[in-house]
Amino acid sequence: MALTQADIDRELADSRAAYDKARADGAPAADHPARDFAPYRSSLLRHPKQPLVAVQGDPETVELHTPVFGHTDITDIDNDLTIQHQGEPLGERITVSGRLLDSGGRPVRGQLIELWQANAAGRYAHLRDQHPAPLDPNFTGVGRTLTGDDGSYSFTTIKPGAYPWRNHENAWRPAHLHFSLFGTAFTQRLITQMYFPGDPLFVYDPILQSVTDESARQRLVATYDHALSQPEWSLGYRWDIVLDGPSATWIEEGR
After folding, report:
1. Is 196 within 8 Å of 33 (Cβ atoms)?
2. Residue 237 bears catalytic tag
3. What are phi and psi of 229, to 5 degrees?
4. Using 50, 70 and 90 to split pLDDT, how confident is the model at 63?
5. Can you tell me the mean pLDDT for 9-37?
6. CA 107 to the chain's CA centroid
7. CA–CA separation, 131 vs 113, rounded Å?
8. What sign for the dihedral angle of Cα 152, 158, 162, 163?
9. pTM
10. Which of 6, 9, 97, 132 has its CA 20 to 30 A from that of 81?
11. 195 catalytically annotated
């Protein structure tokens, strides 16, 4: 029998209670979720069960066989997902801006940031996404940019819709954007997600709730910034990404 939302809610409540007790007993804050977080069912199947295998020989040799990224790979319009086709995409146009920072609050410049997302109806332009929501011929849902000298980045896109994901009966994911961050090599790639403030699906979503610590979860939620909104054009959201330290943004590990 399929799990219901009530089943998942009980598991999430038990997880939060166990975490709160551990914190009360002196355990440190857990900024990253367990790789086998039970309410997120597919993590039980996909997380590593054996120790990682160390690369033998010169580690730098690996990077000779991985992609290389540079300024020539990015065009001036790659960060605007609304002008990649002949027509305009449907949905609420938004601007998402922020800074990429290290643990000391210093800007991380010249870094490749990629973004991908569902369209306004909550559907990805991908063959594996077959749920009955319309595709938008004018929206592919992918973009990229390089951070500036001050660590800044900016994307213009469409606010994505929520979508079903079959983790359990009546499971819906909150609207979110996927972010991919590269260091100086492909092997340094990090992936995370950005959410929108006030979404009623937050409490029902095992992926977001797998980040057990409340303050760490809040760092995944963008802030509406009216100064970023453009008259008669787009609403603005600000979201800084911190790579390390006590204010680090949650990064998907082993997903």
Report:
1. no
2. no
3. -70, 140
4. low
5. 88
6. 20
7. 28
8. negative
9. 0.88
10. 132
11. no
* Active-site position among 99, 168, 178, 217: 178
Whether 124 is a known active-site residue: answer: yes
Catalytic one among 40, 124, 153, 237? 124
Three-state DSSP class for 8? helix
pLDDT bin (cut points 50, 70, 90) of residue 255 is very low
Paired sense of beta strands 241-242 and 93-101, if any:
parallel
Could you read off the pLDDT of 140-192 as tens digits, one per residue? 999 999 999 999 999 999 999 999 999 999 999 999 999 999 765 556 678 99
Residue with tokens 């977001």: 208
Active site residue 40: no
- Number of DSSP helices (H) and strands (E) in the chain, helices first: 4, 11
Q: What is the mean pLDDT of residues 61-82?
A: 72
Please say whether the dihedral angle defined by the alpha carbons of residues 141, 65, 252 and 110, taken in this order, is positive or negative.
negative
Beta bridge partners of 98: 153
Told to judge if 176 belongs to the known catalytic residues of this protein, a careful annotator would answer yes
Kindly name the residue from 40, 153, 163, 195 that is annotated as catalytic. Answer: 163
Among residues 144, 176, 217, 219, the one annotated as catalytic is 176
